[in-house]
Design a protein that fits this description.
By secondary structure, the protein is α/β, with parallel strands linked by helices. Helices cover about 30% and strands about 20% of the residues. It has a six-stranded mixed β-sheet with strand order 3-2-1-4-5-6, sandwiched between helices. Helix 3 links the parallel strand 4 and strand 5. Helix 2 packs parallel to helix 3.
């Protein structure tokens, strides 16, 4: 199992980015090894269109089973639903705090997108 978190920076102390597709970074956490891999989301930050779907592909290609983010658009959410990746909402906290909330079952699993497309 792997958890992907949209992040404003490369450190566990950086905040969860409220944007999914156009977040600055993704931090991938492996709960078994407790390793964190950080990937810059540079291709999608300024994308004309398709940032959410492309970011969803990036997350899926890193074998994530769970996504934690501030918001998720309809196309990215549909891609996650198709691939069986669960999406959880978290805002106003650090990546480390989000992981702790997830482990304790304190995050709400999204049942649908939280914003319309092209949200910035």
């Amino acid at each position: 199992m792997k958890i992907a978190i949209s992040a404003t920076g490369e450190k566990i102390s950086d905040h969860v980015d409220p944007r999914f597709g156009r977040c600055q970074y993704f931090q991938f956490f492996d709960p078994i090894s407790e390793n964190i891999e950080t990937v810059k989301n540079e291709e999608n930050v300024n994308a004309q269109s398709g940032a959410g779907v492309q970011a969803a592909e990036l997350v899926a290609n890193h074998d994530a089973d769970v996504v934690i983010t501030g918001n998720c658009g309809p196309k990215a959410f549909a891609a996650f639903r198709e691939s069986g990746i669960k999406v959880f909402a978290c805002s106003d906290c650090s990546v480390g705090e989000a992981l702790e909330k997830y482990k304790k079952g304190e995050l709400a699993q999204l049942q649908d997108s939280t914003v319309q497309g092209h949200w910035m």
